Amino acid sequence: MSRRAVIQSIGHALPTKVLTNADLETMVDTNDEWIVQRTGIRERRVCEGPIECTGWLALNASREAIDRAGIDPLDIGLVLCGTVSGDFIWPSTACMVQDQVGAKNAGAFDVSAACAGFIYALSNAAAMVVTGQVDHALVIGVDSLSKQVNWEDRSTAILFGDGAGAVVVSAMDDSETDRGLLGTVLLSDGSGSKFICIDVGGSRYPWGSEQAEGKRNKITMMGSEVYRFAVQSMGDACCKVLDKVGMTPDEIDLFVPHQANLRIIESSAKRLGLPPEKVFLNVHKYGNTSAGSIPLGLYEAEAEGRLKKGMTVLTVGFGAGLVWGANVIRW
Ligand code: UT7
C-alpha cells in the first residue's frame, strides 16, 4: 500500500483594483501597443490601502481552499507558503496563515523560490504527504510584487501584478485513486542571481545602513537575459519532468505555465508541440503574479471547466534565484 498526494481543492484571491496599460501610460513612458506586443499583458491587479498585502491574499485563498475541501483545519499538518513578498522579513507568512485559519497542529514555513514558489512548495508538501509525515497540507503560492516594483522603471512596472492561489493536498491510498502529483523537477542556478533581484533589506545591505547606500531597494531586472533563460528553462523542465514520469506531451490534457510573458509561454508550448486549446492563459488579465501565477491559473482553468478530475496537467515555472521547475499532476 502506498500513498499519493492528491489536490483536494483549490482557492484563490485577487485584489479588486485593476491597473490597465492605459493607467501605466500616465505613470511611465510606455504604451499599450508596446506592452501587448512584447508581453501579452493588458491589465493587472494591485493591492491598495493598508490591509491588502501578501498575507491578506494568502489567507483569503487558503480559507476558500479549506472550505472547499471540507477539512477540519486541525487535521492540517503542514502549511507551506511560496512567496518572496511576505508581510515581514520574518516571521513567515505561512505562520500567520496557520494561526488565522486555526491550523493548530501544523508546522509552517515559507518557501523562497520567486515565481517558481508554488512549484517548489507543492513538490515539498507532496513529499511530506507521500512519506506519511503529514496527512493534509495547505500549500499557497502568493505574491504582491506591486509593493516591490519601482513605479518609475518602465521595464519592470508593466510586468507585475498581485494574486494568490492555495490548495489542500491530502494523502490517498494508491488502490483508491490514480490522482495526485505524479512527478516533479526542481532546478536552480545561483550564478544568475543578478538577473533579477532586490539588494536592500537583507543582512548584506540592511535598510538604512551605510552598505545599502546606492544599492537597489526595488526590483531590478535584466529583461532580455531573464527572457532567454525563461525560454530555455521552461522547455527543459517540461521535457525533464515528462521523461521522469514516462509521458509524452500528447498525454498532457492541460498546460498551465507561469504567466510571465505570452511570448515565453508560446515558445514553450511550441517546443512541446501543444495546440493552443491545451495551453492555459490569463497573463492578459493579471500580468506576472509571481508565485501566485500557477495556482491562479489552475483555479481559473477548473472554474472554466477546462481542468477536471482525472485530467493530467503540466505546470512549469521559473524565476529569481535563478530557479525553475515543473510538476505533472493528475487532477
Ligand atoms: O518571473 C520572472 C520575471 N521576469 C520576466 O519574465 C521578464 C522576461 N523578459 C521579458 O519579458 C522581456 O525582456 C521584456 C518584456 C521585459 C522586455 O522585452 P524585450 O523585447 O526584451 O525588450 P528590450 O528590453 O530589449 O527593450 C527593447 C526596447 C528598448 O528601447 P531601445 O533601447 O531599443 O530604444 C527599451 O528601452 O523597448 C524599450 N522599452 C520599452 N518601451 C516602451 C523597455 N520597456 C519599455 C516599455 N514601454 N515598458
Mean pLDDT: 97
Shape: globular
CATH architectural grouping of the largest domain: 3-Layer(aba) Sandwich
Give me the oligomer status.
single chain
Straight-line N-to-C gap: 21 Å
Helix content: 25-40%
At the fourth level of CATH, the homologous superfamily of the largest domain is Thiolase/Chalcone synthase
Radius of gyration: 19 Å
Query: Main sheet, how many strands, which sense, barrel?
Result: 5 strands, mixed
Order of helices and strands: EEHHEHEHEHEHEEEEHEHHHEE
Number of helices: 10
What percent strand?
Answer: 15-25%
3D structure, described in words:
The protein has 331 residues and is of the alpha/beta class. The protein has 2 domains: 3-173, Thiolase/Chalcone synthase (Peroxisomal Thiolase, Chain A, domain 1, 3-Layer(aba) Sandwich); 180-330, Peroxisomal Thiolase, Chain A, domain 1. It has 10 helices and 13 strands. It has helices spanning 21-25, 32-39, 54-69, 93-101, 117-130, 154-157, 223-245, 262-272, 283-286, 293-303; strands at 3-13, 18-20, 43-45, 78-82, 107-111, 136-144, 162-173, 180-188, 196-197, 220-221, 254-257, 312-319, 323-330. The strands form 4 sheets. It has a 5-stranded mixed β-sheet with strand order 1-7-6-4-5, with helices on both faces. Helix 3 (54-69) packs across helix 4. It is globular. 50% of the residues are buried. The model has no long low-confidence stretch (mean pLDDT 97). Bound molecules: oxa(dethia)-CoA. Oxa(dethia)-CoA binds next to helix 2, helix 6 and helix 7.
